[in-house]
Amino acid sequence: MNFDNKVVIVTGAARGLGQEYARQFARLGARVVACDLRDCSDTLAAVEDEGAKGLALNTDVTSAESTKEMAAAAVDAFGGIDILVNNAALYGSLTFAPFDKLDESEWDSTMDVNVKGVWQCCKAVVPSMREREGGAIVNISSLAATYGMPNGLHYTASKAAVIGITRGLAREIGRFNIRVNTVAPNVVNTDATSEVFGEKRDKIVEVTLSQQAVRKPLETEDIVGTVLFLSSDMSKLTTGQTLMVDGGTVML
Ligand SMILES: NC(=O)c1ccc[n+]([C@@H]2O[C@H](COP(=O)([O-])OP(=O)(O)OC[C@H]3O[C@@H](n4cnc5c(N)ncnc54)[C@H](O)[C@@H]3O)[C@@H](O)[C@H]2O)c1
Questions:
Q1: Structure letter (DSSP) for residue 144
Q2: By the 8 A CB rule, do 247 and 184 touch?
Q3: Region 216-239: what's the mean pLDDT?
Q4: Alpha-carbon distance 100 to 94, whole Å?
Q5: Does any ligand 1 atom lie closer than 6 A to the CB of residue 188?
Q6: Please, are residues 246 and 143 in contact by the beta-carbon 8 Å criterion?
Q7: Ligand 1 mean position to 14 CA, how many Å?
Q8: Which atom of ligand 1 is nearest to the CA of 86?
Q9: Could you tell me if the CB of 152 is within 6 A of ligand 1?
Q10: Does the first or last residue of the chain, that is N or C, have fewer Cβ atoms within 10 Å of its Cβ?
Q11: 217 CB burial (10 A radius; 0-12, 13-18, 19+)
Q12: Is 183 helix (H, G, I), strand (E, B) or coil?
């Protein structure tokens, strides 16, 4: 697989999984635009360490204006956009609680970032992908959406909506040779996961593993290959799909 001359935007790329996607796209020759509300300079350094060109942007995925600026900056710097990874989300900072105890403003912000943010970014990049007569969008959902995570209904609902966006948009823009797919990981060992589960983390990982067919804990590098595959021409007739990376917990 190689991404020579491809231009990739990764949202939520300042740390965790997004940073790892950015690094691995760079390793395979892509020019990488790393976007986040947080500072992406570490990610840009990682991209440049791989010998690739990159750009670090301060982007709010919920904002039409900010995502338009993101797309314009990518086009200005690198001539167009081929791939978008919609990875930005509220996850680590969320309060997980029974459905009737969730905070209403947190429900709204989760939908704003995890659902509307995906839509805004897709709207921003599709014009350039159409100009280039093709593209690939990979949306990041979660096992929560397919398994039904208890005590996280806002997060679960938002990640199920990501699968809906994937299917609807794949049908709408397939005729422009733009593919839209979803990757849905199980619990991955990231800073955000430690923030979510706190001192219960080891117990949660143990329970999670007991439900996996392949009983290995997921690390960031375990998710990357599936994202790269769905971004590459190797999957050129795969669209509207959701690929689980969950050690065989949910089998679709
Ligand atoms: N870590 C896991 O176990 C796991 C499992 C399944 C799915 N996921 C999904 O994978 C993705 C990355 O997870 P992670 O563990 O690396 O989490 P993370 O919190 O480290 O990464 C999310 C990034 O999104 C950014 N972000 C939040 N709101 C934003 C906004 N409005 N605009 C731009 N950027 C914004 C954050 O600043 C953060 O850097 C998320 O979509 C998450 O839901 C994670």
A1: I
A2: no
A3: 97
A4: 15
A5: yes
A6: yes
A7: 9
A8: 41
A9: no
A10: C
A11: middle
A12: strand
Whether residue 155 lies in the annotated active site: yes
pLDDT range class, residue 210, cuts 50, 70, 90: very high
- All structural domains of the chain, each given as residue ranges with its CATH number in brackets, are 7-187+220-245 (3.40.50.720)
Does the pLDDT of residue 252 top 90, yes or no? Answer: no
Tokens 């200005």 locate to: 76
Using a 6 Å cutoff on CB, does residue 54 contact ligand 1? no
User: Given 3-state DSSP classes, what are the helix, strand and coil percentages for the chain, each rounded to the nearest 5?
Assistant: 50, 15, 30
- Nearest 10 degrees: CA dihedral of 50, 11, 191, 3? -30
Distance of CA 222 from the midpoint of ligand 1 (Å): 16
Contacts of 248 (CB under 8 A, 6+ apart): 212, 213, 214
| pTM to 2 decimal places | 0.98
On the 0-12 / 13-18 / 19+ scale of CB atoms within 10 A, 29 is middle
Ligand 1 atom with the smallest distance to the CA of 112 is 31
Question: Which single residue is written with the structure tokens 């990610």?
Answer: 43
